[in-house]
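Section 5: illustrative case.
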């Protein structure tokens, strides 16, 4: 029996491990030279735009909203299908998330619904590049310009993706990335905001460190009661080592996905995700189960796959159906595609260290389970 194949796993090379050991011996563990170097390397990657890191993309998104002055009384348009952080950060600023549906196959925000949802209170729109597949940014920014909105791109999953040949993050308004271990590169935990005016970049710096700044060699000032979300040098060192490998990681993901599509063939027994184009970083490969034709439910499918040594993820439940959002007045039936994805989605294993034969192992196991469960 071969070893268990998880749905994702980070790849940390020996060089990075050795560099982390050096940081641990250096005496400087919290934000220092490695954080500066990581931000500089990311800025170069994004064509020279400003980059400020935080301890998570959740903090990045929240601080990006706050840096735009978004808060109580404001509305932000958010897709109902994303990781819950996309909406939680809006609530945490005091603003209201206004959900709209997504496309069933691309999982991208429905921009017609987004435009229809704009009110006098709308301040921003948060497109999410789910699974790394870029949202139609030309349309997003045209809509934002027409209505005077800020755009906070949730690019947590989109490092390495490009839209019309331009790297996600290299243009646009405020673009937020995640370096959680499940993402295409990791800093253990971590996130970054790319972009912003010099005033907004300063706001980002204040928000990640107590609302405080140095005003003289022996004096600091605290402008507001800020929290704390500064990255450590240990984390930044891991991030630097990972960034060196980003191109190779992305290329490997694309190879594995090409294999998945070839193996599933013309009539797959589950609904495959949109292929996108060459700019897709393939953060995840999430398909929809044909639950109405199966005698088993999703939990049983996951258990049957686990019994065959294959890990399956669920990304994500529709956000508006969580009790925290029902309490804001949202209910079942409002966003049918997000709800269907939430019920049927299964994430198949996809990470750079997978072997050439792993996709076949996954597809064979899934075909076997589905064949045995068809009504
Ligand atoms: C779409 C999306 N947004 C935000 C986040 C939050 O990222 P982090 O875990 O770095 O806070 C995630 C992480 O899963 C995500 O997938």
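Designed sequence:
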């Amino acid at each position: 029996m071969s070893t268990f194949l998880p749905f994702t796993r980070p790849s940390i090379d020996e060089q990075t491990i050795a560099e982390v050991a050096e940081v641990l011996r250096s005496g400087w563990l919290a934000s220092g030279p490695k954080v500066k170097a990581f931000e500089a390397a990311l800025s170069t990657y994004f064509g020279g735009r400003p980059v400020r890191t935080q301890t998570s993309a959740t903090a990045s998104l929240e601080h990006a909203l706050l840096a735009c002055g978004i808060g109580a009384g404001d509305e932000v348009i958010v897709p109902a299908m994303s990781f819950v952080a996309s909406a939680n950060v809006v609530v945490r600023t005091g603003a209201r998330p206004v959900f709209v549906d997504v496309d069933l196959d691309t999982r991208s925000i429905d921009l017609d619904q987004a435009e229809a949802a704009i009110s006098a209170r709308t301040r921003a729109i948060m497109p999410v590049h789910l699974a790394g597949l870029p949202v139609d940014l030309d349309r997003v920014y045209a809509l934002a310009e027409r209505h005077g909105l800020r755009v906070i791109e949730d690019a947590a999953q989109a490092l390495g993706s490009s839209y019309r040949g331009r790297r996600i993050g290299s243009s646009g308004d405020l673009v937020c990335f995640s370096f959680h271990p499940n993402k295409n590169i990791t800093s253990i935990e971590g996130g970054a905001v790319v972009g912003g005016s010099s005033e907004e970049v300063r706001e980002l710096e204040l928000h990640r460190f107590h609302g405080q700044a140095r005003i003289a060699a022996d004096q600091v000032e605290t402008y507001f009661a800020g929290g704390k979300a500064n990255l450590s040098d240990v984390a930044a060192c891991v991030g630097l080592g990972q960034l060196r490998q980003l191109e190779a990681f992305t290329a490997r993901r694309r190879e594995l996905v090409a294999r998945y599509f070839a193996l599933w063939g013309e009539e797959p027994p589950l609904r495959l995700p949109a292929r996108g184009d060459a700019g897709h970083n393939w953060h995840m490969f999430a398909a929809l189960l044909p639950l109405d034709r199966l005698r088993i439910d999703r939990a049983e499918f996951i258990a049957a796959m686990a019994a065959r040594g294959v890990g399956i993820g669920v990304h994500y439940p529709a956000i508006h159906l969580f009790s925290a959002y029902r309490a804001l007045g949202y209910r079942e039936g409002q966003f049918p595609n997000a709800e269907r994805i939430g019920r049927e989605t299964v994430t198949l294993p996809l990470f750079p260290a997978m072997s050439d034969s792993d996709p076949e192992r996954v597809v064979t196991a899934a075909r076997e389970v589905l064949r045995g469960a068809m009504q």
